[in-house]
Amino acid sequence: MTAQILATLLPVFLIAGCGTLYGRYRTPDIRGMNTLNMELFVPMLVFAVLADGQAPLEEYVGLALAGAVVVLGSGLLLWPVVKWLKLEPKTFLPPMMFNNSGNMGIPLLLLAFGEAALPAAVVLFIVEMLLHFSVGLYMLSPRTPLWRLLRMPIVLSSIAGLGVNLGDVPLPGWLLEALHMLGGVCIPLLLFALGVRMLDIDFGDWKTGLLGALLCPLSGLVLAAPLVWLLGLGGLQAAALWVFAALPPAVLNYLVAEQYRQEPHKVASLVLIGNLGSLVVMPVVLAVVFAYVHSGVS
């Protein structure tokens, strides 16, 4: 099991480490890289996975519901803690709710369980992204119009992919292959960009960052445990939910906080120290998940 955990985590941290090393000596256009990823490569991957008839999406409804409960429930669960510690909810809660399902979640699940885990990883990623750009933006600015969602390439590709899948529209193999190849670019690029972002860590507010690194995965796992049982999730879907629930805050939280001027430096500490904390959290979670999968519990 130790070898399996290392085989899953080492490529993730090696690619992210390459991004950190490159960013240390160069000044890559990380904004341009992220824009290209989120507007082209990630939407292509999402469309390809959803449009591929080999992924019976009706089997993932329970997982999508569970993912939504983990995201929204984390905010509700930690609300009393935030009030008790007198933290700013708009600063602290979004990073606790919206996790790194893109930069870390998709690569982790693919490395841990292979291509069979890709539909589950993409479904959870879509759920997290849609909630982030609806509920998350509303939390920061209640006047944000929800119709802005329809301008996002990830939303448009999700709608198109679902339409093709549910409408049983046949697509030529060469087109799906090209989309999968282009979409596959996003996975190492997500990790590389995460590594570059690690250079922005501000340890000036390390106590809040450390608190977030603990509470983000803890709140998710507390919610995931009963959901696996209540929704009857088993096999790869249960494993995917466990990994999803334990993921650190998404880097996107920092970009959104910067856009809305919501204490971006504090959010950066929460995000980046939380991702550093995953070096400790993810090996433990993967050990439990691998034991669960190998035991054949469903």
TrEMBL record:
TM region(s), chain numbering: 63-85, 105-127, 148-166, 178-196, 208-230, 236-256, 268-293
UniProtKB keywords: Cell membrane, Membrane, Transmembrane, Transmembrane helix, Transport
Localisation: Membrane
Membrane topology: Multi-pass membrane protein
Pfam families named in the record: Mem_trans
InterPro entries named in the record: Mem_transp_PIN-like
Protein name: AEC family transporter
Species whose genome carries this gene: Halomonas flagellata
